[in-house]
Amino acid sequence: MLGFVENHSLPRAAAFFDLDKTVIAKSSTLTFSKSFYQGGLINRRAVLRTAYTQFVFLAGGADHDQMERMRQYLSALCKGWNVRHVKELVAETLHDLIDPIIYDEAASLIEEHHTAGRDVVIVSTSGAEVVEPIGELLGADRVVATRMVVGEDGCYTGEIEYYAYGPTKAEAVRELAASEGYDLSRCYAYSDSATDIPMLESVGHAYAVNPDRTLRREAVSRGWPVLVFNRPVRLKQRLPRFTMPPRPALLAAAAVGAAAATAGLVWYASRRRGGSGARI
């Protein structure tokens, strides 16, 4: 546990959290597949593939090349999706789908960082139509996520404006530090994936949470603490400890991109061709 409060005469600090398998027990992008099916955005075949991919996600992951193929596929798949409709589907099912899979340990850390006077920032490759409401549910101060280009008709054009992945996450952290006055040497970062090593090494206090094999090796060599989160719990079951009202999740380097919620389609195809490694 952190065990101390920030000296507010010092520069500001923040805690940066990856989302999937770091704060929540599953993939945020894949969890909403059934909702998108019921809302008419994807078909039954996609739902079945996504269920398989959720299993794969818990046991393995996608390497860099597979993530790049995923990015290209999503840009085409989401073309024509109405952004308002996507937001409505996420809002309707957020508490039922996400609340039960939030790690108790992560929620406690978020509380501790806020008590210590640090901002909490969620930094995720998933689309912000998914990540932003999750961040608000958690009481995060800011959100960095993938965003898609939205046309004048209110629908996705099929182009990706910002992809929050790998080194791009680290760039977003540095940009936030510059704009918000964070002292990165006093900041914290948490992730499960080796693809987030650039983000982890950009702060003074890095933690590997439920790390993949590559990140575990890197954490041992760099002396980063390894944390194991394994207690998903509904936030309301944590009361009265979790009493802080949700803070508005401000978009930092990203705003929209719920197309990432169908990432399982690409992942499924990629896994059949082989490969393993990084998680979303």
Overall form: globular
Q: Enumerate how many helices there are, as a single number.
A: 11
If you compute it from the alpha carbons, what radius of gyration comes out, rounded to the nearest whole angstrom?
18 Å
Order of helices and strands: EHHHHHHEHEEHEHEHEEH
Mean pLDDT: 78
Structural class: alpha/beta
The portion of residues forming beta strands comes to 15-25%
Task: Give the proportion of residues in helices.
Answer: 40-55%
Please report the distance between the alpha carbons of the first and last residues.
Answer: 26 Å
Major β-sheet, in short? 8 strands, mixed
Return residue spans where pLDDT drops below 50 for at least 5 consecutive residues.
Answer: 51-60, 240-280
The count of DSSP E runs of length 2 or more, i.e. the number of strands, is 8
List keywords for this structure.
280 residues; alpha/beta; eight-stranded mixed β-sheet; disordered C terminus
Verbal overview:
There is one protein chain. With 280 residues, the protein is of the alpha/beta class. The protein is 42% helix and 15% strand. It is built from 11 helices and 8 strands. It has helices at 28-31, 33-38, 44-59, 64-77, 83-97, 104-115, 128-138, 167-180, 197-200, 213-222, 263-273, and strands at residues 14-17, 119-127, 142-150, 156-162, 188-191, 205-209, 226-227, 250-251. Strands 1, 2, 3, 4, 5, 6, 7 and 8 form an 8-stranded mixed sheet that branches. Strand 3 (142-150) and strand 4 form a beta hairpin. Helix 3 crosses helix 11, helix 4 (64-77) crosses helix 11 (263-273) and helix 5 (83-97) packs across helix 7 (128-138). It starts with 13 loop residues before the first strand and ends in a 7-residue tail after the last helix. The relative contact order is 0.24. Residues 51-60 and 240-280 have low confidence and may be disordered.
